Amino acid sequence: MAKQDRAIRTRKTILSAAAKVFEERGYQAATISEILAAAGVTKGAMYFHFPSKEHLAEGVLHEQDLKLPIPGRACKVQELVDTVVLHAYRLQTDPMVRAGVRLSLDQQAQGLDRSGPFLHWSGVGGDLLTKAQAQGELLPHVVPAETADVVVGAFAGVQAMSQALCNYQDLPRRVSALLRHLLPSLVVPAVLAAVDLTESRGAAVQTELESMHPVPQPASVS
User: Fold this and answer.
1) What is the pLDDT of residue 218?
2) Which of 88, 116, 120, 216 shows a CA-CA span of 20 to 30 A to 99?
C-alpha cells in the first residue's frame, strides 16, 4: 500500500509541475526537461507514468474532470448554474484547471486532442438541461444538446477574455453577466426568478463542497 501511495503522490507531483509549465509556456514551447525540473523527479519516474509530453497534457486535461461534482439540486437549472460558476471559481484558484483550459484552447497544440473538455462539459450541460426540461423548467423551444454547446462555447469565450484582460480577476462578474443574458431565453420565468446568479455563488458552492468532503489532515507524530 505504501508503494502504491508513493506512486500516486509521484503522479500528482508530475501533473502539478506539468500544469504549471503548460500554463506558463503553452503546449508547443513546454519541454520535458522543464517539467522534470519543476517536478523534481527522475526521468524514469516520469516516463513510468507519462510516456510523452502528449500524455502529460492529456493527464492535465483529464484531471479537471475528476473534481468532486456539485451536490444534486431539486432545481436542475440551479445545478447547471452551480456547475458553471464553480468551474469559474476553480479557474481563479486551481492551477490544474487553469492549465487544462489553456491547453484546451491552445490552437498551436499540434497533435494534441483538445476535444475532451469540450465534449465533457457539453455532455454534463446537456444532461442537466434534459433533466430540467423533464421537470418543466425550460421554455418549449429549447434543445438541450444544442443549448449546452452554446453555453460551453460562450463560457470559453468569456473566460478567455477575462484571462487576457485581468488574469481572471473579474471572471465571477463576467460569468454572472453571461448567465443573466443567456438564461431568460431558456428558462421559465417563475423558475429563473428563484435561481441564484450572484457573483459569489461559485465561492459558496466551493465552501459547501469543502464542508461535505473535508481534506484529511496528516496524522501527528507523537
Assistant:
1) 45
2) 216
User: 189 in a domain, yes or no?
Assistant: yes
User: Does 54 lie in the same domain as 79?
Assistant: no
pLDDT, average across residues 110-129: 89
Residue span of the structural domain in which 72 resides: 67-212
Distance CA 75, CA 4 (A): 41
DSSP string of 19-57, one letter each residue = HHHHHHHHHHH--HHHHHHHHT--HHHHHHH-SSHHHHH
The three cell numbers locating residue 204: 459558496
Does residue 25 share a domain with residue 116? no
The β-bridge partners of 196 are none
- pTM for the whole structure: 0.82
Q: Which of 38-52, 97-111, 116-130, 135-149 has the lowest mean pLDDT?
A: 97-111
Span 80-106, average pLDDT: 90
In a domain, 94, yes or no: yes
| Pair 205, 112 in one domain | yes
In 167-198, where does DSSP find H-type helix? Answer: 171-182, 189-192
Higher pLDDT, 207 or 111: 207
The mean pLDDT value for 111-129 works out to: 90
What residue type is 173 in one-letter code?
A: R
- Distance, in Å, from the CA atom of 179 to the CA atom of 192, rounded to the nearest integer, reads 11
Q: How many domains does the chain have?
A: 2
In a domain, 161, yes or no: yes
How far, in Å, CA of 127 to CA of 145, rounded?
Answer: 8
